[in-house]
Amino acid sequence: MSKSDAAWAALSKAADAARDRRIDSLFAQQPDRLSRLGLTAAGLELDLSKQPWSLADLDVMLELARTSDVEAARTRLFAGAVVNASEGRPALHMALRAQTGADFRADGQPVSADVDATRAAMAEFAEAVRAGAKTGATGKPFRAIVHIGIGGSDLGPRLIWEALKPLDPQIDLRFVANVDPAELAQALVGLDPAETMIVTVSKTFTTLETLTNAEAARGWLRASLGAASDSHLVAVSAAPDKAQAFGVPADQVFGFWDWVGGRYSIWSSVGLSCAVALGYDVFARMLAGARAMDDHFLTAPLKANAPVLLALAHMFNRNGLGRSIRAVVPYAQRLRLFAPFLQQLEMESNGKRVTATGHPVAHATATSVFGDAGTNGQHAFFQLLHQGTDIVPVDILAVREGSEGDPAAQTKLLANAIAQAEALMVGRTEADVRAELTAAGKTPAEIDALAPQRTFPGNRPTSFILLDHLDPERMGALVALYEHKTFVEGVLWGINSFDQWGVELGKTLATRVLGELEGGPAGAHDPSTAALIARLRV
Ligand code: F6P
Q1: 196-201 β-sheet, strand order
Q2: Which of 2, 91, 281, 521 could form a disulfide with 498 if both were Cys (CB 3.0 to 4.6 A apart)?
Q3: Long-range contacts of residues 254-257, Cβ cutoff 8 Å, at least 24 apart
C-alpha cells in the first residue's frame, strides 16, 4: 500500500471510531484539546474543538496532509508555478496583496511591478472621484457607481461592500449581476445619469450577462447625456482591448492578468468600485489583512496553520464521515453574503470529479455550502441542523464588537452564536425532556409522544471563527483564510482548484437555445426541452 493510500485508510478508520463517539466526551479525555484545536491567525480566532475528531485523529489528518505534499504544493503556489494546468496558468492572487516592491513571478515572469502600477492607478482614480476632481460629462461629481459583473467579478466586491460600507456612504455603490433585466432596472432607480459611473467588470469581457447589462446601462446613460456619457464608463478586464472596443475610454480601463482566477480576484482592480466607494486606504488595509494570512499560511507549521486545520476539519467530515453539505452562518448581518461568496469559492474551485491529470478522483470532493446570517438562519434552517436526519457541520462566525448599533443587541447576537454551537454539540437527552414533561404534569402517553420530538441528539460539529472587529484587515484575512483552505483541500483531493470547465456546457447550450427563442431554426433537443422552447419562443 502506498503512503498516500495508507493515510486515507487511516482517515477511514479514525472516522469509523468517531462516528459513535460523543464530541463533548473528548474534552474530559483530552485536557489540552481546546489549546491544540484553537489558534489565532492574522487577527482571527479559530476554535475547532467542537469537531468530531480526537487529537489522535488530528494527527491522522496531519499525516494525510504531509503525504499529499501540501507544503510542496504551497511552495509551488506562491512561486507562481502553473498550478492551473488545464489552462496553463499560475494562480497568484497573493501577488495582488503583497507589499509594494515585492518580487512575485508568474511562471517565471516578474509581475509585482505591474501590480504596483495598477494599484497606484486605482488609488489615484479613487482619490480623484472621491475628491470630485474626476467629474461626469456635465461637470457634476460622481455620487453613484453601478458595478456590473457576475461570479468572481461580483461576489467578492459585493461581499466587501456589504461588510465595510459606511452607514451613510459618500458614493452609492450598487451591484448588477443577473441578466434578468429586473436587477439592472432596480439598480438604476433614483439615480441621476449625470452623477452615475458604470463600472463593468469582466475578466474575459465576453460574459453574456455582463455585456447585456453593460450595453443596457450604456444606453441608459446615452439616452440622457448623449455620446459624451461614455466618459462615465469604466472597465476592469484582463482583455482591455475588448473593453475599449465597447467604448470605454482607454485611460479608464483597469487591467488584471490571466494568472488571477475570477473567484480570487477581489484583490485586483476587480475591487475598483469598492476602492472608490470605501476609499483606497480601506481597500489597502484589506489587502494587508489578506497578506497577514498569506504570511501565516506560508510559514506556520501544519499543526498550527489555520487554513490547513480548517481544511482538515472539513475533510474529516466530508471524507471520513460522508457529510456532503456544510452550513455557513455568520452572526453578523454585514457578513450575510459570505455563504454565496463561499459557494463560488469552494464549489467552483473544488466541485470536480476528475483529477488534474484527468483520472477519476479517488475521494469525494467539495461539500455543498449554504447559509445565511445568524440569527435569521435560526428561524429558517436550524430545525434541520438540530434534528434533521443528516448531520450538517456548521461554520459559525462571530464578531465581538459590532460595527454600529446598540451594544446590548450585539451581546444578544453573540449569546445566540455561542448557544447554537453549544446546543448543536451537547443536544438534550430524552431523559432530561421526560423529566421536564413529568414535572409539567403530562400523562405517560403524552410524554411518550412528545419526548422524542423534543430531544436533541447533539453531536453536530461546528467550527467557530471569532473576529474582534469587522475591520478591513480582518475581512481580508477571513477571505484569504477560506481561499487557502480551499486550495489545501484541492491539493489533498488531487484536483485543479483553479479551472471551471463545468460552467461551459450550460453557456453553450444557452446560446443555442437563445437563437431558437429569437426565431432561429429549431435544433435537435429532447422532447421536454423542445416543448419548453416552443412554449417560450418570442
Ligand atoms: O461562472 C463562470 C465564470 O467563468 C466565473 O469563473 C467567473 O468568475 C464568471 O464566470 C465571470 O467571468 P468574467 O469575469 O470573465 O465575466
Answers
A1: 172-176, 144-148, 196-201, 233-237, 253-255
A2: 91
A3: 254/118, 254/121, 254/122, 254/125, 255/118, 256/96, 256/118, 256/203, 257/106, 257/111, 257/114
Indicate if the pLDDT at residue 1 is higher than 90. Answer: no
For ligand 1, whether the C-beta of 54 sits within 6 Å is: no
Cα Rg of the chain, angstroms: 25
Is the pLDDT at 287 greater than 90? The verdict is: yes
What mean pLDDT is predicted for residues 366-379? 98
- Cα–Cα distance between 264 and 89 in angstroms, integer? 14
* Cβ atoms 60, 14 nearer than 8 A: yes
* 140 DSSP assignment: P
pLDDT reported for residue 538: 86
Nearest CA to ligand 1 atom 6: 262
Ligand 1 pocket check: which of 84, 148, 150, 178 to mutate, most ligand atoms within 8 Å of Cβ? 150
pLDDT in tens, 384-431: 999 999 999 999 999 999 999 999 999 999 999 999 999 999 999 999
Q: What is the whole-number distance in angstroms between the Cα of residue 84 and the centre of ligand 1?
A: 16
d(CA 484, CA 349): 11
Cβ–ligand 1 contact at 393 (below 6 Å) = no
The whole-angstrom separation of Cα 57 and Cα 49 is 12
Q: How far is the CA of 151 from the centre of ligand 1 (A)?
A: 5
> Is 207 close to ligand 1, i.e. is its CB under 6 Å away?
yes
